[in-house]
Amino acid sequence: MASLWSYWRGGGIARQKFDTVGGMSSYAVELTKRSPTAPLTSQGAETGTLRVDLSWRMRTNMDFDRAHGRARFLRHPLEIFKPAEIRGHSQGVASIDFDLACLYELTDGSKGVVQSLGGLQGDFSAPPYLKLSGDDRFGTASGETLYLNLDYAEEFKRLLVFVYIYDGVPAFDRADVVVTLVTADGRNVEIGLTDPPPQARACAVALIEPHKGQLVARREVKYVYGFQSEIDRLYGWGMSWGRGAKQSRA
């Protein structure tokens, strides 16, 4: 996915891009602070499936050195003439397990969460018309995916897509994380989890709500230091939370 890689390499700079695959063009857009919203349904894409993909890659020492080098050069431009430092690579790559989840509220007033924690995988053909598939611990592009049944789009009052760290080091700043919303007509709407604070354990990524007959995604990218209950309080879902665990997979 070219625009995803442009995000990883470009340090979060917003780009709009047409990707050509097999002679066909697909449109990709990245939501940013300056351009935070995008329609997810339109004429010809009111039904079918909206897919939400979670992808990430761990940052290497080279990534940190490059980023820190740019910042240092901007502060001290004359240091470019100094001999390069020789030092060991003591920064290990943290082991992180990112998980995709979604808080939902339907028009009938029912509320809940779809997440792998507690085995709350959802249901595609019955309420909440959301289904979580996969639990990838290796950060590949084919990892966790959330499916939204657009045949029942009128049942959605609001949906909040978020990412949390259940296991491992609470360090969003050790990885480049991207959530991609793939519409029914093949458009990619990407949201990079930029500027994470140290020790954050969860991030509200996108709020999806109906607007003038369409479902519209709004970039949030708001971090919390706790878990789902903090995300709940931030957006006023009003649910009761308890301790949970992931179910083992066959």
Description:
- This protein is mostly beta strands.
- It has one domain (2-59, 96-235): Sandwich (Lipoxygenase-1).
- 13% of the residues lie in helices and 40% in strands.
- The chain has three helices and 14 strands.
- The protein has an eight-stranded mixed sheet, with helices on one face. The chain has a six-stranded antiparallel sheet with strand order 3-14-13-10-5-6.
- Strand 7 (122-123) and strand 8 form a beta hairpin.
- The longest helix is centred in the N-terminal third of the chain and has 15 residues, at 61-75.
- The protein is globular.
- It starts with a helix and ends in a 15-residue tail after the last helix.
- The model is unreliable at 11-25, 80-94 and 135-142 (pLDDT under 50).
Anisotropy-based shape: globular
Q: Give the structural class.
A: mainly beta
Tally of contiguous helical segments:
3
CATH class: Mainly Beta
Report how far the terminal alpha carbons are from each other.
30 Å
